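Trying the structure run again after the queue cleared.
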Amino acid sequence: MTDFQKIPLTSIYKRQKSDRDIFQELMPTKVKEILVVATVYDAYSIVREGQFSDKIFGEYLQLNLYASPRFSSVNSQEDALQIIHKKHFDMVIIMAGVDKNLSIEIAENIHFSKSRLPILMLANNNHGLEDLQREVSKVPAINRLFVWNGNSNVFVAMIKYVEDMKNAARDTKLGNVRIILLVEDSVRYYSRYLPVLYTAIMTQTQNLVSEESSDELHMILKMRARPKVLLVSNYEDAIKIIDEYSENLLCVISDVRFPRHGIDDEDSGVNLLIEARKKLKYSIPTLLQSHDPSNRERAKKIGANFIDKNSEKLSLEIMKFINDKLGFGDFIFRDPDGNKIGIATDLDEFEELLHEVPSDSLIRHARINAFSSWLMARGEINIAEQLLPYNIEDFSSPEELREFCIRVFLDAKQKKHRGQIINFTPKLCTGNRYIVRMGRGSLGGKGRGLAFISNLIENIDFKHLIKGINIRQPATAVIGAVEFDRFIEMNNLYDDIYQERPAEEIRKLFLEAEIGVVLKDRLYNYLKEMKKPLAIRSSGLFEDSLLQPFSGVYSTYLIPNNHTDINTRLEQLCKAIKLVYASIFTETAESYFHAVNYKIEEEKMAVVIQEVVGHDYNAKFYPNISGVAQSYNYYPFSYMKPEDGFAVIAVGLGMHVVGGNKAFRFCPAYPRLINGSLQDQMRDSQRFFNAIDLSKSEINLEEQDEDAAILKLRIADADKDNNLNDCASTYNHINDIVEPGTFIKGPRIINFANILQYDSIPLAQTIQLLLNLFEQAMGSPVEMEFAVDLEKGEDNKPTFYILQIKPLIQQEKSYHIDLDQIDEEKLIMKAKKGMGNGKLDNIKDIVYIDPDLFDKLSTKEMAEEIRKINTEMVDQNKEYVLIGPGRWGTRDPHTGIPVLWANISNAKVIVEIGLPDFPLDASLGSHFFHNVTSMNVGYFSIPFQSEDTYIDLNKIAAIGEVTSYGKFTKHAHIENGVTVLMDGSKQTSIIQIN
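Done. Tokens:
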């Protein structure tokens, strides 16, 4: 039998070579070969999310001169050192993984072997960035550190940074190329500035393409080749650039405070701009930017522009400054007299206009190979190369030429779309073998994960690995994050949304705003093809990131998509998209941003639109099975190991599982192993399920929000739909046994016995294999959301749909607890079932639900009390221990206390305790649980009447100053505080009095 946990990814995954190439540049030194030292997932993200060819498509047009930057990725130091001796590289990108020291060691060893090879380090986010920057600054081998917070343009900036560094001196002499000097010593800020600068520059260069028919093109390219950006971080280097390129400086952008003579100087920026004015023969635009608004007056005195770094509109203000100097351009279709008759801003519009423009315009552009040149600049090399060899004389008529061009477009898409991200084409949007891009910009964290899933599925032959089931992804489209910025800008929302406004006001503003005409038209054409219910999901830049994944923080809307009027369906879809945008500004999201030390202005929202998995069962739409699986199990039992992982599955929509409701848990490695007696199984069996209501086509998203189209149904309704035979067993009270299936009358137990016990489909093996592969690819434990369609599909098999993957966070080092050295008299809690790692000192506040006052019918009231006291804790900047019965964060008020993450944002330790007739069942698989893990919040379980674990609330009350908060909640303030010790490797934790 195949051990699916031990199949190496490298033995079955054939990495596709990207056909997205960068147009040949005029610069003498170009980055053609890039070595990426990263996990498989990071390498894939760079190639797909970098979108290099899309970002610099207009740079240096010249027919017949093409360059194709290529990426080679390795996953270890040994492979990196081996490959640099066998192959030439122009630069190295090292992803700063969990082990930062190893990343630095790799850089030093590469530098020792290839001292002239530029090496850049890339951090995944702002976590620990200052410490990393200090370490990197001591390492001469590393040219510069960047940080990636989800903005894909940072990769283009890194490439251009190396190219500009190497080419500036020669290009200014040969082509009178201009220089933009950026003086900034903050990694976080120059990682934001450079992408903005290069985005504007690349767009300006693209404008040259629309002027391709001009005889002066080569002169323009020579005299106005794209400006180079030179980044320095101290005064002396800045003066050196000014002296060297005094004839070529286009503008200077400078921080106020940065090192001068090795010491941070508050006057460095102002003095630099004054000195630059003295040295230059002519005035150039200058920009001073600072955290201190008072520097605005200093900038004004020296005639410089000013930007406040604290501004919520920082990127917009930088772009506005740059846009005054740089232009934008598109492909302009012209008639024989040169008159403008059509404009294409992207490939979709270009293809549409191929159908529409007059024949004489086609001939005009084809005669000078304008199409192939523009396409080559866009990175569509395959299409361009097919068009380039043909002349007008090769076609009998203009219409034959038109048909040929259109056919080349469609054929190329068909060949390359599997496992790829393709631009929106209505006829292709129903496919499930690729991702459809409906708007520009980053796919966001969730979208990036979905694109990776698509690529993985299409590059592994699962049919030979898993028999009896198809592995697919639902038809998926993504609206890029640029559309979010466009929505905000077009509706003039910046000043409104980045002020302190209630979430409901912002929500109303978003609903009243309009989605852009181009995007709305695409959505209309999308709905012409898509007839099933749709899920509209958030995909923020920070969502599902490797170090701080947001989970369940933003909104997801399910719509029936069944109205007879397509315009009504379009209105529902647009409302859902706008509400997803608005979910950035909810209380829950703001609490999470505060907790991870990010600014909301840094977040951008892409939107994922997915076809919902399932079928129409008596006007109810739902999948047979949905679930969540994790590759690491914090609560193994019997002979399970944490690395065996676990899965939680249920009948109906997956919101039932991620909401923390009753569902069936099992280990994919041991699916037949059952934890609990027959009575426990009956008590804990799924009682309800969720479905989309198809009986009504009108939905009220404004008032009912995410539940507008959702039904909560009894499991008996699924039984009536004949959907439980593989999912349920029946209790035979005569024989006091449980029989798989639903062929006899009796209480149903949702335990998926026919599937897990008798292998009617290979569900456990599929989950086990995919968790293994994704964990290898992402370099960390993972969580996967999925749905299963038991009806026969392709090859007459059921289908396993992967809906989402995200990383799970594990701590770098394990904290060891020696229980023999612990003073039992000081203990107030000992848990042997929990998670978290490390030591928390001097927490002085404990908030708990008094077990003597607990009423399982009043859990919503308890949640409100907790919300209020958490608000006070946030205002007073106090962290606390939170204790209560049942599951925290469940959506089912009968199984625990239904708090949202925002309601307990300052809790550093969460304890769930069991009570009589209120058993404890940890919140595995829920969004709440995922956020707890990612924030390293201590999370402990104390079962009722456990022999070796306990919590002593009486001792807490005795040593603390206890006050009541509402009917159920107590707040104990302990002046000397308590210490929390968490042993992540043993899952053992204690709380002791200081």
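Confidence is low (pLDDT under 50) at residues 15-26, 50-68, 206-224. Worth checking whether this holds up in the mutant runs.
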